[in-house]
Amino acid sequence: MVFLLSAWVFLATVVAQAADGVSVSTDSASYASGDPIQLTISNAGPDRVSRGGLACDDAWPLALEQLTDDGTWQPVTVPRHQCIGITAALLSPGQSQSRTITLLLYPGTYRASYPFDDADTATHGVAYSDPFEVLAQGVPPAK
Q1: Residue in 53, 28, 52, 27 with CA at minimum distance from that of residue 40
Q2: CA separation for the pair 16, 123 (Å, rounded)
Q3: For the chain, what is the domain count?
Q4: Which pLDDT tens digits describe the chain residue by residue (143 residues)?
């Protein structure tokens, strides 16, 4: 019984670990609402990572979150279009993938998230960008 409990604890610990080296970055710290946001997913880790599922919006494979007044991050609803089923978008070690999204966002603080599966260790993880600001239209973004 002790062996089974120890094996379960070990398995739970391994499954909870995220792949090292996966990151999301933006090309600027601030944007005017409606300006294109260039996002890059990079895999500097040792494992292949992937994202599968339904691509139903222009942000996929990323998601956006907004910082609320109470200090929590809340998902941003992105306009949807016809969904496309994707088995897996694989990102091998040393690879990166860029995506440009253009959305009318309310002024505030945002971040991008990239939920992924580690194809080599069968674990799950989420990489987040640094927070970035969206300014009201007509306010120039910081360079």
Answers
A1: 27
A2: 7
A3: 1
A4: 443 333 333 333 333 334 479 999 999 999 999 999 999 999 999 999 998 888 888 888 999 999 999 999 999 999 988 998 887 889 999 999 999 999 999 999 999 999 999 988 889 999 999 999 999 876 655 55
Instruction: Say if 142 falls within a structural domain.
Output: no
SS3 at position 15: helix
pLDDT for residue 41: 95
CATH code at 42? 2.60.40.10
Domain-located, residue 8? yes
Report which of 136, 74, 130 is spatially closest to residue 108, judged by C-alpha positions.
136
Phi, psi of 29 (to 5 degrees): -90, -15
The dihedral through the CA atoms of 97, 57, 130, 30 has a sign that is positive
Q: Do 63 and 126 contact (CB within 8 A), yes or no?
A: no
Q: Which two tokens stand for residue 78?
A: 């992105």
- SS3 for 133? strand
Contact 56, 81 (CB under 8 A): yes
CB burial of 64-74 (b: ≥16 within 10 Å; e: otherwise) equals bbbeeeeeebe
pTM across the whole model: 0.79
